[in-house]
Amino acid sequence: MTQPYVKQDISKGIATIEFFHPAHNSLPGDILALLAGAIQEAGENDEVKVIILKSGGARTFCAGASFKELININDSESGRIFFSGFANVINAMRKCPKFIIGRVQGKTVGGGVGVASATDYCMASKFASIKLSELNVGIGPFVVGPAVERKLGLTGMSQIAIDANSFYDAEWARQKGLYAQVYDSTEELDEAVQAFAENLCNYNPEAMREMKKVMWEGTENWDTLLAERAVISGRLVLSEFTKETLKRFK
Fold this sequence. Notes:
By secondary structure, the protein is α/β, with parallel strands linked by helices. It has a single domain, classed as 2-enoyl-CoA Hydratase, Chain A, domain 1, CATH 3.90.226.10.
């Protein structure tokens, strides 16, 4: 696989949405837009009862923001638009009336942690360590922070946000509430995710819709909140500190 993509497959009430980018499943603006659109589309499809969100490849679930795009941001408006892509994905997941099961097969960084956190039920392999690296490059996890805090709590989110150089293993993430289950292999993970999704298809769709509303109560201001956070990140990515740091990743 060399070309980035977002694809959706629907079978027996389960919509599987998969994204891929050859740079460790990083998320440039076009992939973010396609991902938000696919989630919204699946949520509106009456044939779909539950959604599985996954990434392609074996080693990395998501490397977060595309460094190539970050390096090329030269004004605050372009920065705001880029980081709004993450806001749009998280808000699409939040508003989607179907349960979203996360399948995290490997390491996830930055914005990828936000995506995993915005799923309704997240399952992972033991290789799925997490890191919020944004402070390390001079930005901060402003857009994804609310989703991460909702899953890990303020203490857990603050810990990994401040310790921006460290990966925290999958068991730590399970204990903090990000992962519901952790499996020894990707094969076991895939079997469990599929079985869990199939079981959810036996539930009352109306009851699941109402349950999702209840679970996301208190986030009604996220359209505005995440837009404001995107402005902060868009400004900080222009700082001399961040520009110099990003040059090292070229």
